Amino acid sequence: MDDARIVELYWQRDEAAITETQTKYGHYCYCIAYNILKNNEDAKECENNTYLDAWNSMPPNKPAILSSFLGMITRRISLDKFRKSMSKKRGGGEAELSLDELEWCVPSDKSIDDEMDSENLAKLISSFLKDLPKTECNVFLRRYWHFDSIKDISKRYGYTQSKVKMMLKRTREKLANYLEKEGVFI
Amino acid sequence: MRSDKLQDAIGMVDEELIVAADKKPNILFKFRWVAVVAAMLVIAIGIGVVTLPDVPMTGEVDNTTATTTRGTTSGTVQTTTQSTTQTTTQSTTIKVELPTALSSHAISEAVYPTMAKYPQVDGYNYDSEKYELWQADRKKQSAYKNAVGNLDEFYKKTIPEFLIDNKNENRVYSPLNMYMALSMLAEINNNKGRDKLLDFLQVDSIQSLRTQAHGIWNANYCDDGAVTSILGSSLWLRDGVSYNKEVINNLTKYYYASSYSGKMGSTEYNNMLKNWLNKQTGGLLQDQVEDTELSEETIMALLTTVYFTAKWDKVFYDDRITQKLFHTPSGDEFCEFMHETNNTGRIYWGEKFSSTTKGLKEGGEVVFILPDENVSVNELLKDEETLSFISSKDTWDNQKGITVNLSVPKFDIQSNYDIIKGMKNLGLADCLGMVSSASHSSRVVADKEGVVATSFIPIYFPLSAPPLKDKIDFVLDRPFIFVINSSVGMPLFVGVVNNP
């Protein structure tokens, strides 16, 4: 079923919307959740919560790209769950590794301005990513949006793992410089 | 954490960027091949073991066999003689293409046989003359198998030694690469060490070993555009050190090994060595090659490589790939599985394993060996029956033609390990002399897009019983062993996939 029809089902409050979403994007959402949580049960729970969240947000939302809309929900829910569990103990997983890596983007003596909300920060990052070479942008997002492991990214693009690490390191450095210039840090 | 906000913001970037990142990238050349394999074995020898003694480095290298024509495969040698004032090349008709800097440091360069290229066959439309030429060259190379004795004991001793690993990591070993390295080590070793190696390699004389190694090299050599299978070797000598010209000649003549001389520890010489390794391994082992350097103390180094690429004879179709859990020793991981249904195949079984194969186009095959559910891969590698199966699959009693639904994870595995301990365990301590380091690195990429969902039906054949069904699901979703056999049925690579 095409995405527009699935969205229409949500708007009609037809529960078939959930089934169709699960069929088409269940695995996509599950993989994002699993990358973050590294636990089957937790990932399944986040996938199911994604359907519930989607049900509650359509209407009023009418996403043009259903996959990324659902992916964003899964990512948010899974990260929330991950952060709650991480406050109790640190336990590996790509989300934790990626957080550690992203710490490098924030100068050690500074922090992100509280006045800068996530939406505006996202706009800046989007603008930065659009200026990057296509592959660098995609590798960055596979790592920090989808939380793919370095190994998976290297397989996906046919690069060695060290090349992927180096590419990510350079992109993080560029991002840090860009955000610094934009006055994001105080 | 300070980056939480950044992580949240990345989650809200423009959707079009996410859509672009979701798209499958253009697949690089190497992934269009289903089985791409490379291995390198580096043995560095420190000061104190000048085993190529006596003759000053002045050059007069025997060049009596240094001629070749297309398809001629016996004893081809490319030699370059060096003196302090000039370098002259006594050229054969075909020369391995090497960077100029490398050639200028060559004492002797191997010349590989040339083979007629595999003609494009489109149904009944093909150039029959070209096809016959290609077949003739293939047959000529395969005929060298007759010069190779039984290597079963070598496989049985070395495969468990180098593959059993208690860390549950992926591991790859190339028996033929090891055989060539040990053979060359015998050539450059002193009498006591040499005798030990000859004994281990199950030959009665150095001449028998030469014949055997020459046969192995040629029987497994292929470079016809359809399959690439090359066993490369080289010897790296220290400038100013005496060497025995006869040894150098024999290494080139029987083992197709090139020899170079240069300043150990220099950036230039190390870069040349890295270039050679990258070239011989198709650039697949760049990380390991980058870490390979010869120190100033090294007196010589022996390098052997294997590079092998081939396509599946029947590709996995693009719409037949699914994500599926692979049960690794440390937990479940999602990975892409390639599925093939209703394939007319063959199933093999033993007390602790079951196995099937998938053919490679124009020669060779990959043998998948799945331990029974209550058996570990390490246990299987110690099992006499399994090791016998690896070396004599074709004559195995317990086999049956059957329809196979095969599910194989895509895998891209690398392994890198020290082999000195293993060589000592094999009783070869006497042969190591002043060997300062010896390592084996390899990478195997098995890939092809495609798939259909199949259910997991575990296979278990109790105590040599044949499968009762006419169709079987062979799902490699837990640690397994694979063997890549060359077109003459010799195991080029054996590996363990614990985590694809």
Short description:
The complex is a heterodimer of chains A (186) and B (500). Chain A has helices at 3-11, 16-37, 40-57, 66-88, 94-102, 118-130, 134-144, 150-157, 161-181.
Structural features:
heterodimer; A: 186 residues; mainly alpha; Rna Polymerase Sigma Factor, Chain: A; Butyryl-CoA Dehydrogenase, subunit A, domain 3; globular; B: 500 residues; alpha+beta; Antithrombin, Chain I, domain 2; Alpha-1-antitrypsin, domain 1; 2 domains; ten-stranded mixed beta sheet; nine-stranded mixed beta sheet; 16 helices; 28% helix; 30% strand
Topology, element by element:
The complex is a heterodimer of chains A (186) and B (500).
Chain A: H1 3-11, H2 16-37, H3 40-57, H4 66-88, H5 94-102, H6 118-130, H7 134-144, H8 150-157, H9 161-181
Chain B: H1 4-10, H2 15-22, H3 29-32, E1 35-46, E2 77-82, E3 87-90, H4 100-104, E4 106-110, H5 128-142, H6 152-163, E5 171-173, H7 175-188, H8 191-200, H9 206-219, E6 222-223, E7 228-238, H10 245-255, E8 257-262, H11 267-280, H12 286-290, E9 298-310, E10 321-328, E11 331-349, E12 353-359, E13 365-371, H13 377-381, H14 384-391, E14 399-409, E15 411-418, H15 420-425, H16 429-432, E16 435-446, E17 471-475, E18 480-485, E19 491-497
Parallel strand pairs in B: 7-8, 14-17
Antiparallel strand pairs in B: 1-9, 1-16, 2-3, 2-4, 4-8, 5-19, 6-7, 7-9, 10-11, 11-12, 11-14, 12-13, 13-18, 15-16, 18-19
